[in-house]
Amino acid sequence: MEELSYIFDGPKTGAIENQEQLKKAKIMTQLFPDGSIVPSSLQWDKNCLLGIVDFSDHETFFALGDTDTLATQFSGFSATQMPADRYSLLTAVADIPNSAQLRSQLPHLTPRPLGLQPSFGFGDRLGLATPGHAVAAKLSGQGIAAIFCQQSIREMVRTERSPEDVLSTATWGAFRAGWLQPVGADADHLKTIEDLDLTAQAGFCFFTIDPSDHVDQSADNYSSDEVEKRFQALLDDGVPGAELFLSLYNENSFDLEESKNTLCFETGALKRAAVKYGRALAHITAMTRHAEKIMGKSGFDLEISVDETDQPTTVLEHLFLALELQRNNIPVTSLAPRFIGDFEKGIDFRGDLAAFIDALKIHAAIASQYGPYKISLHSGSDKFSVYPPIAEVCDGKFHVKTAGTSYLEALRVICRVNPELFSEIVTFCRERFPVDRATYHISASLNQTPTVAGLTPEQLEQYYLTDDNGRQLLHVTFGSVLTVKDGNHFRFKNDLLAILRTESQLHEEFLVKHFGKHLSLLQKGSV
């Protein structure tokens, strides 16, 4: 193995140039005749060459180096070590326990708080999209912090995944792509202390608190008498802060320096905002105090999500929330309002863009003056028309969350290489759609998209992965597709994942193109 010594010529720290990666990968194949070295994964640590090798049904981590170094510096891996010429080769399954050790070995892969820098969340429901996400971020996301590990408890339940699994696949995916920048990890839409504990223990450090169960969704439609009655109930129930709302804010004016607006709380509007969000604020405070307790000095990012409401968040409601969050010393990193217009899953913004921008300017001014914190855009995938104004108006203080759009790009791979399987998935999704759509705000309907009978593969892709209606049909049924079983066997999941592993290059190509468009438009607005 004379060529093996070439690997150790030259510098042995950090990243490896692309051409050198290819040369070293070619040499390394002699150690893995049945596998395929992933060149982008190759990097140095402690004078050892690290990387990923793909086999037909799994991926394996390896480290090649001095025997004593491997034994002492890589002892935390559950691994096998064997001689390799004058060196030793350590191999380890790319699983959850070893992902934790990899994060310990390579600290840049350990999630950390990202603060107020612009950021982008890449949700990955299948656990195979992070390499494509990372390449897209490297090519098109300069200056935008990446969060590859992002999933809500609701999504984890629907896909039968754990927080540890979500973080593990994001770690291995980032390593595979040669990612060397900091990363975050967003536990999305947390509603309970128990969910916060589960995700914190797994290693998440970005907590999105969803207080929607404590928001009075009917407050906008109450009569004045009903508002008075329910405001009094806040006082009678001892909701924290309720006794101060009137003395602090009633008939007071607040000048917004950035937007040159003045907002004033008229008594009725203030009480209505308090009725709508008073109990939610108490829940947010309790969740935050618990996060501070369990995270200690390590710190965390905190997002407040009030986007899952029936009506848009008014600027006065946002101001009320911002003032109370500030008064209660809630360390907000970002806040997601419910914006005007329609932010439906998997498709572009629908509505009056000019009106959206006008409202966004005031929301951003509130966030800047009473935080500062970032404005967060939920259901943020494919909202191409709003990315430039989001970046520009928010002056770079933005966060965008995506999730289902990556799943749709995975289905695009299936459509290209196995249209028969894709047709079966579509037919099943049409059956599930009336039930699965219940928890989503979408306008899609079955009768707007034809059934699969008689459609060519090209027509299938057009109707179900390009046209808005078909995209939403597939988007909201992901949980059913990934969990349906025939007896003890998954009907679609295993075949779907097997194809994506075999066609990893095509999968990456689709993701890089799709997210390159997202990130490039956010870059344009930041200029």
User: What is the straight-line distance between the termini?
Assistant: 52 Å
Helix content: 40-55%
SSE-based structural type: alpha/beta
- Which descriptor suits the 3D outline? globular
Q: Biggest sheet: strands, sense, closure?
A: 8 strands, parallel, barrel
Number-wise, the strands total 19
What is the count of helical runs?
A: 20
Query: Spatial order of the strands in the main sheet?
Result: 8-9-10-11-14-15-16-17
* Assembly form of the protein: single chain
Contiguous runs where pLDDT drops below 50 for at least 5 residues:
none
Mean pLDDT, to the nearest integer, reads 95
Question: Strand fraction band?
Answer: 15-25%
Spatial extent as radius of gyration: 25 Å
Provide the descriptors you would attach to this structure in a database record.
single chain, 527 residues, alpha/beta, Phosphorylase Kinase, domain 1
Describe the structure.
The chain is built from 20 helices and 19 strands. It has 527 residues and is an alpha/beta fold. It has an eight-stranded parallel β-barrel with strand order 8-9-10-11-14-15-16-17, surrounded by seven helices. The protein starts with 13 loop residues before the first strand and ends with a helix.
Write a brief structural summary.
This protein is α/β, with parallel strands linked by helices. The chain has helices at residues 18-28, 67-73, 96-105, 130-140, 153-159, 163-176, 193-202, 224-236, 245-249, 267-295, 315-327, 353-370, 387-393, 404-417, 419-436, 457-466, 468-475, 478-483, 493-502, 504-526; strands at residues 14-15, 36-37, 43-45, 48-54, 59-65, 79-84, 87-93, 119-122, 145-152, 183-190, 206-209, 253-256, 261-264, 301-305, 334-336, 374-377, 398-402, 485-486, 489-490.
